[in-house]
Amino acid sequence: MRILAARYDVPQLGLASTNRGLEAQVSRRCGVKRNFGFVYQREGREHVPDEVTQCNVSDGPFGPEAHLMRPDLDQYLFEAAKNYGALAFEGVKVEDVAFDDDGVDVRLSQGDTLRAAYAIDATGRNSVLAKQFGLREEPSRFRTQSRTIFTHMRNVRPYDQVDDQTKQPTPWHEGTLHHIFDSGWMWVIRFAYVDRLSQTLLDNNDKLVAGSYVAFRDFDLWRAWSKMWFLAWNLGVMRLAGAYYQYVETGDAAVLDELHRGELPGTFAPEAPSAQAQFERCFAIMESIDRGEMEIEDAIPEMAFIPGHGEASPAPLDLHDVLRPWHDGSAETQTLIYNWGRTASPAGMRKWFDYDRAIIPLAAQRVHASLAAPLAAE
Known about the structure:
- This protein is α+β, with helices and mostly antiparallel strands and 378 residues long.
- It has helices at residues 2-8, 11-15, 19-26, 70-83, 128-133, 159-162, 194-215, 219-250, 254-257, 273-290, 296-309, 331-343, 359-369, and strands spanning 31-33, 35-40, 52-56, 65-67, 94-100, 103-108, 113-116, 176-181, 184-189, 326-327.
- The protein contains 13 helices and ten strands.
- The longest helix has 32 residues, at 219-250.
């Protein structure tokens, strides 16, 4: 959202990307996200304190990430869109959507027909256009065949008050906490050329989750596979952050367009094919385990070697140490990763580090500056 805010001069989007901005302008009901944590549980047994992993959100002037209270954020963005001139039709039903070579006609229940260059379907999992054009695969190709149930609860004790022996860097309840077990997980949260891009995003994330379900069978296997989560997250953040900081530094929108020009769109590092190769090799190991072709104890050393020695693995992350439970997001580590990116990362990735780190606090100041005055579209 900060990239969109910077490129199109919509400060409301920038504020919605930070905890400080959310609290001041959107809602006090959004939650802080300082980490992405996993606690391994075994049926009928007390939790073993060492069987945990946690990826801590990077320190920085933008503050920690947030868990978004969607009704509040959606209303804030809806009102902002109206302030910028969007026409809103509330309490109506879409009766028909008809496309032709020049655009689309949307017919509403009260009789109006809206003409536009294109339509965006935001109707969720029961997508109107997905049904109309038969866009859903039947049967689905995805390996992850799961179901989800969710609920909102009050007065739940923070997990840190239930289990205080894990000694993780930041409190579990200040992040996205996953209780993982054989065959599943439970989230506890306080409180994306387009076709190729979308399909690759779906496939890669499906593999990431499917590999996790295999890894949940054994804590040491999970600890090894969790390095792929950490690597994928860092590679994605590096390119987005690099593009954003370069744009703030230069004002040249061409650097943002570069985000869409990677060799492998939809992968964790589109400009680094070696990163995708590492991921595929690791996932192949998980498939071998799932088919009974490889023992877990044989897989773990391989899982240590692939991300630990891969060209696209930042050396400061020490991913070869698969038994390491904590992943450092400190400013010092970020500086080391920045230096690695400029000098030792795959050639295609180095453009994302072509900025002066002094721009980071200035970028944060720019986002938060709009807190000093009311936001309104002219």
